[in-house]
Design a protein that fits this description.
heterodimer; A: about 150 residues; alpha/beta; five-stranded mixed beta sheet; 7 strands; B: about 240 residues; 11 helices; globular
């Protein structure tokens, strides 16, 4: 369904004409086997806690999502209207697969699940995210995270 | 998403990602990506299908074994059709047809409030069965949203009811709360409606959707630049904007 041919003509035109940021380098970090990895989720669905300040138009900041949050505490504040929210409304794991990640850790297929996860609002200029990641990377490292699953929406 | 991957890898943290738009991923060349053929908004597939979601997640995580790339692979499965998509689905609540003849904020708010009340039992059931609701991002309750949306049709425009947010941000967030309320209620009804069925029903049959379409016009005709942006692209999806 996310094949461009399945989207509305106007959305398809917008996506096809969007100029993507090009990078001069392609860094790629290795690491231990998956069974030993500690994994965090970073979503760009504009997820936030119920008592968080909502994302506002053009904001490049992130919100912190503790891994033990009750599902009812997680809301979505993304600006776009052009994606399905009914899946998220019925099951958080459609967008933020925290239960699936915990099951993989319990089964020994991954090492462990990070204590903290994060969310940005998508449709943000990547250059604006660079300083945010500079702030975020030490937080991930202090949580002993050595791999991140990035989840768009 | 590709930008986040790049900056995190530069900082020494390995990444793997879901790709919903293969074209953009091909252009941005993140180190590891799994393209999935699912609808936008559903990066890990269908709701309430743990086995399927786990297959997606594991397929993405297994890309971490690559340390030379970029690697872009395709997930081989489509989302299974819901019962409603196989058998057809119709909302069993017979709501009043939307009409554009109402004028004045009080009348529009009253009509919206009346329609909202018709869905309360199904919304309450949804919250009880799921143990959660995604309504609440605006900080307003449903009666307050109906009042605010009605006031959008009066002159002058109302001030923001949330002191820390501009009116444009509150309108956008309240619109999402209103839609979430209806879709959560409708998806709790029998028949397991699919995402497109829920969306088509909401935008075709409800007074709430009619109100949002009229607010789009109102925002576009306002003198507030932020409201103009909200009206242009952030209230009604492209597929429903005509």
């Amino acid at each position: 369904m996310a094949r461009l041919s399945d989207t509305s003509a106007r959305l398809r035109e917008r996506l096809e004409s969007l100029e993507c940021h090009a990078f001069e380098t392609e860094p790629m970090v290795g690491g231990p086997p998956l069974k030993q990895r500690r994994i965090a989720i970073i979503s760009t669905a504009g997820l936030l806690k119920r008592d968080d300040r909502p994302f506002v138009l053009g904001e490049a900041g992130y919100r912190l999502l503790p891994g033990d949050l009750n599902h009812n505490e997680i809301l979505m504040g993304h600006v776009s209207t052009n994606f399905d929210r009914s899946g998220f409304q019925q099951d958080l794991n459609v967008v933020f697969p925290i239960d699936r990640l915990r099951e993989l850790a319990a089964d020994g297929r991954i090492g462990s699940v990070a204590d903290f996860h994060y969310s940005f609002m998508g449709a943000t200029d990547p250059a604006q995210m660079a300083p945010m990641v500079e702030h975020l990377a030490p937080l991930l490292q202090s949580d002993r995270v050595d791999a991140v699953i990035l989840a768009p929406v | 998403m590709g930008g986040l991957a790049h900056y995190l890898e530069e900082a020494g943290i390995a990444t793997t990602q879901i790709s919903l738009c293969r074209l953009h991923t091909e252009q941005m060349r993140p180190p590891r990506a799994l393209w999935v053929p699912f609808e936008f908004g559903r990066p890990f597939g269908p709701p309430n299908n743990a086995a399927f979601q786990t297959r997606v997640l594991m397929s993405a995580l297994q890309l971490l074994t690559f340390d030379v790339g970029p690697v872009l692979t395709d997930f081989p499965e489509d989302e299974p059709a819901t019962l409603g998509e196989q058998m057809g689905w119709a909302c069993p609540i017979n709501i009043s047809r939307p009409h554009r003849t109402l004028t004045g904020g009080a009348a529009i708010a009253a009509a919206l409030t009346e329609e909202i009340a018709q869905f309360t039992p199904w919304y309450d059931l949804a919250v009880k069965s799921r143990g959660r609701t995604t309504v609440g991002v605006s900080g307003l309750d449903l009666p307050e949203i109906a009042t605010l949306f009605g006031a959008m049709f009066d002159d002058p425009l109302p001030s923001s009811p949330v002191p820390t947010l501009a009116l444009a941000d509150v309108i956008r967030l309240a619109a999402e709360d209103l839609k979430a309320y209806y879709i959560e209620a409708a998806s709790a009804q029998p028949g397991e409606a699919g995402s497109r069925q829920l969306s088509e029903w909401f935008w075709r049959a409800t007074r709430a959707a009619d109100t949002l379409k009229r607010m789009k016009e109102r925002c576009l005709n306002s003198n507030d630049e932020s409201l103009k942006i909200v009206g242009a692209v952030l209230l009604v999806p492209y597929a429903q904007a005509g």
